[in-house]
Structures are given as structure tokens and as C-alpha cells.
Design a protein that fits this description.
One of its GO terms (molecular function) is fructose 1,6-bisphosphate 1-phosphatase activity. The protein is 29% helix and 27% strand. It is of the alpha+beta class and 315 residues long. The structure holds 7-O-phosphono-alpha-L-galacto-hept-2-ulopyranose and magnesium ion (2 copies).
Length: 315
């Protein structure tokens, strides 16, 4: 529950940059707020997925210690602002997001591409990243007892997605493309009312691990495979102790039976309303979920800007 205060603060700060065309500023605002709030939590956290290495990121770098230094030892994965361009443009789907798990339970994914497939609880054990697009869609249709023409696949709108798009179209299934934000897109597969059945495509590996933590709590399924593009990225995988060829099952991405996922919408999304500023307060909507208990909480909060003027640091 404490962790949602972290994503809320980050969302409040970064939302102040909505539509201003300044993606780095929006990202910095989220990162700074997250950093600040983490240190109010009684935990001994270590960033395992963050903003970069110590020499390239001033805050939330890999290896950085977070928290008050007492309490549980946790590994933390953050994407302070998932959708920096989204906030800069003021389009839909940006969120601040983090995942936490007991020390050693989050895959130390290097910052590179990952092929991903995700689906909701009905499709657990049914999807397989090694199988064809067609096989996966057929399996999901069967598991959900619907026609193939009614299966909706969400795919990131990139040139690299063209093969998947062709195959989905050839099969007659539906497609919902998105510009950015495959953490949210993956999570959407676990909520029936989004209308999304499967996520397929290539996005960031850090986002893959974070999404997997959420999907674990939601009892859906997620698989990934790292896609190193050159020798340097290949070496980076080995350095971080990750096999670049391995099919990464949900339990490889997030091991153990517990993980926490927290996210707050910055701009409007499928699951949550973006930050709203009123005269003296601001409202946020968040989701926080825990794999161990399976509890999923949607939290709408009102933040008094009179009592906590610093909540929006950069406004
Ligand atoms: C995706 C998307 C993210 O980065 O992971 C993407 O979900 C990586 O692909 O929201 P590109 O290099 O093609 O952008 C984001 O867009 C931003 O982190
Ligand atoms: Mg980011
Ligand atoms: Mg991101």
C-alpha cells in the first residue's frame, strides 16, 4: 500500500508536464518524486531495473539503495514514467509504475528489446511464445470460448510489428494498436472489460519484467525472450546473468510467490483516469496488486495542494 504513494507522487509531478513537448522534464519529474517518496518507506530496497547504470543516471540507477533501511529486503523495478513521449504529447496511456519483490526474485533484465506475449487468467498455460501467432490466437479463442474473429490482439505500432500484424489479419482476428506503453497494454489483457485478449510484439525488456509482476498478481500469463541486437547487448545479458536465448516464463521473470505491482495513470488510460488538477486539490487513480494474496486494489485519491503543496514539485 505504501508503494502506491510512490507512483502517485510521481504521477502528480510528471502530469504537470502534460503536452509541453518536454519528455525528459516529464521523466525527471517522475523520477525525482519517486526517489523522494521511496525513502519514507520502511524497507531496504535495491533498484534492479531502473533508469540506467550509476554513471548514466543520477537517480534510481541499478544498484541504488532505497527506503529507510529497515524492514524487508526488496528488489525494486521502476519505470518512473512509462510513456515519456505520451506525456510530452498529452496523449493517452502514460503511467508511473513500479514492481517490488523479495530480494533475488526479479529478473535483472538489461535495457534492450524483448519479444513478449501476454494474456489474461483464462489463458494461463495456453499461450506460448515459441508457437506461431496463429497457434496462439487459436489457443486463446478456445480458452475464452470465442470466435477467432472476436479475439483482439493489442500490438505496438512499430515497423517491427508488421509481420505479426499481417498474420493476425490473415487469420481474421482483431487488432488494437498502441503507440507506447506496453506495460499497460499487457495488464489490459487481464481485465475483460478492456476488450483486449492478447498482447504480442516487441517492447522494452525492463517493461517486460514490470508487466510480468502485475500479470503474476492478476494470475494471467506472460512470456518473453530477450532480443540482443549486437555483440555488446549479448555480452550485457551474460554480464547480468541472463541467458539471452532462453524463453522466459512468468516464473523466470518474477520468481517466488509474491510480487507487488503499483501504477498511477498520468494521462487517461484504459484502466485508470489520468491526473486531474482542481483549484486546491488533485486527483489520481492507481492500481496496486499483490501476487501472494491476489488482491487487486484500484485507488482513487484526492491530494490537497494546500496541505501538500510540494506534491507537484515542478508545477
Ligand atoms: C515499448 C513501450 C514503451 O518503449 O517498450 C517501447 O511499451 C520500446 O520500443 O512505452 P521503441 O524503442 O520502439 O520505442 C516505450 O515506448 C517507452 O518506454
Ligand atoms: Mg522510463
Ligand atoms: Mg518505458
Amino acid at each position: 500500500m505504501e508503494l502506491v504513494r510512490v507512483t502517485e507522487a510521481a504521477a502528480l509531478s510528471s502530469a504537470a508536464w502534460t503536452g509541453k513537448g518536454l519528455k525528459n522534464e516529464a521523466d525527471d519529474a517522475a523520477t525525482e518524486a519517486m526517489r523522494r517518496l521511496f525513502d519514507t518507506i520502511p524497507m531496504t530496497g535495491t533498484v534492479v531495473i531502473g533508469e540506467g547504470e550509476i554513471d548514466e543516471a543520477p537517480m534510481l540507477y541499478i544498484g541504488e539503495k532505497l527506503g529507510m533501511g529497515s524492514g524487508p529486503e526488496l528488489d525494486i523495478a521502476v519505470d518512473p514514467l512509462e510513456g515519456t513521449t505520451t506525456v510530452a504529447e498529452g496523449t493517452a496511456g502514460a503511467m508511473t509504475v513500479l514492481a517490488a519483490a523479495d530480494k533475488g526474485n526479479l529478473l535483472h533484465a538489461p535495457d534492450m528489446y524483448m519479444a513478449k506475449i501476454a494474456a489474461g487468467p483464462d489463458c494461463r498455460g495456453v499461450i506460448d511464445i515459441d508457437k506461431s501467432v496463429e497457434d496462439n490466437i487459436r489457443a486463446v479463442a478456445k480458452a475464452k470460448n470465442k470466435n477467432i474473429s472476436d479475439v483482439t490482439v493489442t500490438i505496438i505500432k512499430r515497423e517491427r510489428s508488421s509481420e505479426i500484424i499481417e498474420q493476425v489479419r490473415a487469420l481474421g482476428a482483431r487488432i488494437v494498436m498502441f503507440e507506447n506503453g506496453d506495460v499497460g497494454a499487457a495488464i489490459n489483457t487481464c481485465f475483460d472489460w478492456t476488450g483486449i485478449d492478447i498482447l504480442m510484439g516487441i517492447g522494452g525488456a525492463p517493461e517486460g519484467v514490470i508487466a510480468a509482476a502485475g500479470i503474476k498478481a492478476l494470475e494471467g500469463d506472460f512470456q518473453g525472450r530477450l532480443l540482443p541486437r549486437n555483440d555488446k547487448e549479448h555480452a550485457r545479458c551474460l554480464e547480468m546473468g541472463v541467458d539471452p536465448e532462453k524463453k522466459l516464463e512468468l516464473s523466470d521473470l518474477v520468481s517466488g510467490d509474491d510480487a507487488i505491482f503499483a501504477a498511477t495513470a498520468v494521462t487517461d488510460g484504459e484502466l485508470m483516469k489520468g491526473v486531474q488538477y482542481k483549484s486546491w486539490f488533485a486527483e489520481t487513480s492507481s492500481v496496486v496488486m499483490r501476487a501472494k494474496s491476489g488482491t487487486v486494489r484500484f485507488i482513487n485519491s484526492r491530494h490537497s495542494l494546500k496541505k501538500k503543496p510540494n506534491m507537484v514539485m515542478d508545477k
